[in-house]
Amino acid sequence: MPYVTSLGLFDEKDITLRGLEAVRSSTRVYLETYTSILAIQKSRLEEFYGKTIIPADREMVETESDEILRNAQTEDVALLVVGDPFGATTHTDILLRARALGVPTRVIHNASITNAVGACGLQLYNFGQTVSLVFFTETWRPDSFYDRLRENADLGMHTLVLLDIKVKEQSEENLARGRKIYEPPRYMSIPQAVAQLAEVEGVRQGGVLAPDRTLAIALSRVGGGPDNERIVGGTLAQLREQPPDVFGEPLHSLVIVGRRLHHLEAEYAAAFAVDATLWKEVAQNVYGCNFD
Amino acid sequence: MPYVTSLGLFDEKDITLRGLEAVRSSTRVYLETYTSILAIQKSRLEEFYGKTIIPADREMVETESDEILRNAQTEDVALLVVGDPFGATTHTDILLRARALGVPTRVIHNASITNAVGACGLQLYNFGQTVSLVFFTETWRPDSFYDRLRENADLGMHTLVLLDIKVKEQSEENLARGRKIYEPPRYMSIPQAVAQLAEVEGVRQGGVLAPDRTLAIALSRVGGGPDNERIVGGTLAQLREQPPDVFGEPLHSLVIVGRRLHHLEAEYAAAFAVDATLWKEVAQNVYGCNFD
User: Fold this and answer.
1) Chain B, window 235-274: residues with a beta carbon less than 8 angstroms from a chain A beta carbon
2) Cα separation of A208 and A149, whole Å?
3) Are A266 and A212 in the same domain?
4) Per DSSP, what are the bridge partners of residue B202?
5) Do residue A128 and residue B128 have CB atoms under 8 angstroms apart?
6) Which structural domain, as residue segments, surrounds residue A271?
7) Which of A22, A89, B35, B244 has the fewest CB atoms lying closer than 10 Å?
8) Partners of residue B223 in chain A, C-beta under 8 Å
9) CB A110, CB B16: distance < 8 Å
10) Is the ipTM of this complex over 0.85?
11) Virtual CA dihedral for B170, B174, B176, B177, nearest 10 degrees?
12) pLDDT digits over A222-262, tens only?
């Protein structure tokens, strides 16, 4: 049976027992590497599982699904993903392909940032739609996410902003010359994300994001526990000013706090604030939280 | 250290390796039983862990948090929850209490219905805010969820509707007489949920839910794999008419499909439909999906 198995968020111990059984029983184990990453190297997973892992980039998952599914009627095959198995359409594609071949599949769920974001102290039921922020280039600065952000803001909802990662990326020159040379992986930092948001707010002028009046929370390495996880709250201006080592290694996500902010949410999150006094002042004066 | 550890969604094999380590190293293991349940009995977990499990109802988690956290500076203690560790405010309360005592904590994340709902084929980024539907009584028929549902509908977003469960419930008579006699657990069924939605639509008349024109998807025992999980799609009228065994044992959740439905989402979900032809007709004629 083909298994699409989430590894969870952080390291080799975040897999479920059912997921580990699926890996151990599989004749081939693929690791999807283009939508998210673990905090550890593939080699550590291989040692832990006692299995060779085949890296599967987007192109492979999209164009070689029949190879991934080869003999899956009679053998177990595992496609490992970080975060949610349904977070990327290519994972859905492979399930559809299996369905077309008449092969039953099993998805093994696990944590994803979509639910683990609750670690910042904001209630999950106060979140609206999730948006993604991609790296801007000279010629490509897509801002359709701003409409989603505004819809959430109009309702007072919080927004989870997923920050772009680039793995197996070609430079424009290498792409133009057809050279399969790839750049090192890149992960969008919190200050860069905030700078891009500010640029789009400047163009759109929708009043959704104000440097000193919009609260936000940066989450880094969620699920890594006290030694690794970092959660930092502040105004957008404050987060933009932080030196990179405040946030540390990837992956990073950002939450834009909505106007329905409850004072208990604000109090819980104040412990993560760059400056708890300012955090509470903004929560009170701009968001209308009553801390008495 | 106190651990708040999610067990995942279905059975004893859905815990992560890190979660299992936390359970094994803990001197006391509590199981939160009032917001969600696993498909298996506590005794099966106890056997699997080789540990006695202390059931923790809402009252206990709320009023005896110091007992749960006793000696947590020097010993490991685990509070097990089903679904998301931040899904219930009482879990947050215990983390706050530990913070007040100066005890570092660790949350071990896992799957919750908030992300596993992707199994129905709808994209997670097309979901708006999640709502909860409680059992109506003669005197208490709260309908504020309808405002949230309408906000999502106005934006065309899908809505995850969480259905009430009642554990350790007292009858009005036993409550009045102060008798600590509890009713058997109850779980809201899909037809009952749809009936309550119809009643509120009838009162509010907001045009959000139409029996023959609103598509919905019922998810049962998500994460249980091909032998247990059941996903059933249809119009609200169709879901309301289904006999209970179509959905089977708890837990059940319901998704109200929003107007932004993409034709690929509709096609994926059509495989779960009571009547795939009608499903696609409604997706085309009401939701504007183009299947050509």
Assistant:
1) 264, 268, 271
2) 8
3) yes
4) none
5) yes
6) 114-285
7) B244
8) 108-109
9) yes
10) yes
11) -140
12) 999 989 999 999 999 999 999 989 999 988 999 999 999 99
